[in-house]
Automatic annotation (TrEMBL):
Enzyme Commission number(s): 4.1.1.37
Superkingdom in the source lineage: Bacteria
Lineage of the species this protein comes from: Bacteria, Bacillati, Bacillota, Clostridia, Neomoorellales
Organism: Neomoorella thermoacetica
GO MF term list: methyltransferase activity; uroporphyrinogen decarboxylase activity
Protein name: Methylcobalamin:coenzyme M methyltransferase
Pfam families reported for this sequence: URO-D
């Protein structure tokens, strides 16, 4: 099987020739370290690093148009203003200052987003290419100060629900453009939880956001694309709701947030392809032996019968990770990811 076939079979809850594996993103510093190179790296080097690790997939976020403000800050197409501070990007002002302003807010044109990276990875490599779009919770929350958004949601402000519906329509159009650019699948990024549970009460999420999420999933499925849902945190209270949607997969499954993949596989493995669950912190603090043992345990729980794609829980390998630990992890998955 090639990369695309392997992931497609697994997303359909089938058993491919081996467990597919991969991360959404690898930061350039780690790409250089894995390849033993110095200086800047680009497209071809990242592709080489992914092949070196035996990855099958990646995920790309449509490029967001930015406008420099002349004082070291910039404004994105959503209307959020940011500045650089000591290498960090800090939000100066949200797109919507308060809930009273939400009714007059106009979403950007999806056609202005840059999809060239999706086209290039699809045309010049044989990886399975996924594209990120926001879900109704995350896509609406990004426009506000997050505390303002949570308080308005808890108060069931009508403006939040109306804006969230517009956000879903926007992301359905963006998903269509990503498909046109060559994406094999869509990931709905929708961080609705933290380590202890959901950011809002489950009943409020079901009332305000679940119907919109269902509409978004069904709209993407109508494009002929698989749909994977991503959220960090403890999703246990909402797993039955997510499993009842037309989703193909669920990514994240943070082990430190109580997301036990063995239990989830038993309860939902027939309905959802599972992706993730490896603890990124272990790649920082562990050594090759402990990392190998942890990967073997994860595969023993998640791989049997198929329907599992290996990745770290967050799906991002950052530049601070020891390259020897990353190599050890992917060697362990190559050795243990057979049926």
């Amino acid at each position: 099987m090639n990369h695309v076939e392997r992931v497609q079979v697994t997303l359909a809850r089938g058993r491919a020739d081996r467990v597919p594996r991969g991360e959404f993103a690898i930061e350039p510093g780690l790409v250089a370290a894995l390849l033993g190179r110095e200086g800047p790296v680009g497209f071809s080097e990242e592709a080489a690093a992914r092949e070196l690790l035996g990855m099958d997939l990646l995920a790309l976020t449509p490029g967001v148009p930015l406008e420099e403000q002349g004082d070291g800050s910039y404004r994105d197409v959503w209307g959020c203003r940011y500045e650089k501070r000591g290498g960090l990007t800090v939000l100066q002002a949200p797109a919507i200052q308060d809930i009273q302003s939400a009714a007059g807010y106009t979403l950007p044109d999806p056609g202005t987003f840059d999809l060239e990276a999706i086209r290039r990875w699809r045309e010049e490599t044989d990886f399975f290419v996924m594209a990120f779009v926001d879900g109704p919770f995350q896509g609406t929350g990004r426009l506000f100060d997050f505390t303002t958004f949570l308080l308005a949601t808890a108060a069931r402000e009508e403006a939040v629900e109306e804006l969230a519906a517009a956000v879903v329509d926007f992301n359905l159009e963006l998903a269509r453009l990503c498909r046109q650019a060559g994406a094999h699948a869509i990931i709905i990024g929708d961080d609705i939880a933290y380590g202890q549970g959901t950011y809002i009460r489950p009943d409020i999420w079901r009332e305000l956001f679940l119907p919109l999420l269902r509409h978004q999933v069904e709209g993407i499925k109508a494009l002929g694309l698989p749909v994977i849902y991503h959220s960090d945190g403890n999703l246990k209270a909402l797993l039955p709701d997510l499993a009842a949607l037309a989703l193909d997969g669920l990514q994240g499954l943070e082990p430190t947030a109580g997301m036990d993949i063995g239990t989830i596989k038993k309860e939902y493995g027939e309905k959802l392809c599972l992706m993730g669950n490896f603890d990124l912190d272990l790649l920082v603090s562990g050594d090759p032996e402990t990392i190998t043992a942890a990967a073997e345990r994860l595969l023993a729980e998640a791989a049997p019968g198929g329907g599992y794609i290996f990745s770290t829980a967050c799906g991002i390998l950052n530049a601070s990770l020891p390259p020897e630990n990353v190599r050890a992890l992917y060697r362990a998955v190559a050795d243990g990811g057979v049926y």
